[in-house]
Each structure stands twice: as structure tokens, then as C-alpha cells.
Amino acid sequence: MRFLVWSAAAFLFIAPAAQSQTLTKNPASTGAVTPDDMSKRLEQTAESVKKLNPSGAPRAAQFDFAWAQDEDEYKALGKYTVVLVSAVSRDEKELPLKRVYIRDKWNKETVLEKISSERRDVPKDSLAHSMLGAYREDSFYLAPAGLMKGEGEVVADFAVNRMGFRLYNLPGTPPDFVEADRHATPAKNAKPDPKALKALLEREYSGFKLPASLQ
Fold it and tell me: Average pLDDT over the chain, rounded to whole?
């Protein structure tokens, strides 16, 4: 049995005399997520941006994450979930992202460990290109399960220009075995078992480049 993959879209558009960010959650999905799936989601984001501001937005992101499929995998992953961020910008200097982190309800920030990153071109004939930008980065991170099921938000800092860009409003909805774990924080210096991490990435995120350590 596998559990749902959740996604969210975030973008920033320019309103009169101010900047305003919009954050939406997409329905959970049950199939493997591919680079084309993220492209389609970015196209949907571009459509939303166009309705709000025909001149477009300076940047946007699509966010996705996957829980372990069972308790054994959860333990093998060291009590981590896997997070995917597809960020697009008009300014190439904004990528790669400087950091992605969780800000809990007490405003404590926990930086997520990046495990891989891949640059892609945004097709010139796409709405995403005209509304959001030409530059895209797909990056994977490890996120502590305890933080992902708690209150807070997932946030990104771009390399320049934009800090505190909200990606996802927590909590996520964990499977029962994670929800029942009262100590869902990974142990100090805990690392996912490479075989378990590779299995999750290949199952849940088909077509993405694996981290160099797993190839």
C-alpha cells in the first residue's frame, strides 16, 4: 500500500504598490510524479497568474512531498519524508534556491537537507515561460516527518531578491503509522538508508535524476 503525494502551488505577483503571494493546495495524487507532471502544474500556476495579473509574476514554485509507504520504509528512511520543489524565475540569478526550510508555529526554522538538484529549460512556447520565467530548478530535500505533520509552513529563500517565499502550509496528512509516532523527529545525525531512499524516489518520482550518491 502506498500513501498520497501532496502538492501545492505558490507564486508572487505584483499588485499596486505592494507584493502579494498566493498559495494553493492541489488534490493529493496516487501515481508517480514526473517532470512533465510538474510542468503541467506550472502551466496551471501560469494560468492562475494570468487571471490575476496579465503581465505575469517574477517567480513561482510547485511543491510536492511523499511519505514512506509503510512502517518498515519509514524506519529505513530515518523518519524523513521526501520533498520536491520545482521553482521557476525570470531572473537566472535567483536559482538555485539558497535554502528550503520549515518554520514551525513557534517561528523556529529548520533547514532541509538538499539531496539533489536539476536545471531545466522552460519551453519558450509555454504559458509558464511568458508568465513565470525561463529558468527552472527541480530539487529534492529531506524533511523530518515530525515537522511535516506539525503546524507551520515550508518556506524557500531564492538566491537573490526574494526571501521567505511560502511553499506549503503545514500540517501535511501523514499515514496512520506516522501519525501514531509520538517521536517522529529523526535521531541526531540520522540518515536514510540509501536503498530505501532510492526505492522511494524511483517509485514516487519517475524520470527525475537520482542523487549522485544513489546512482
Answer: 89
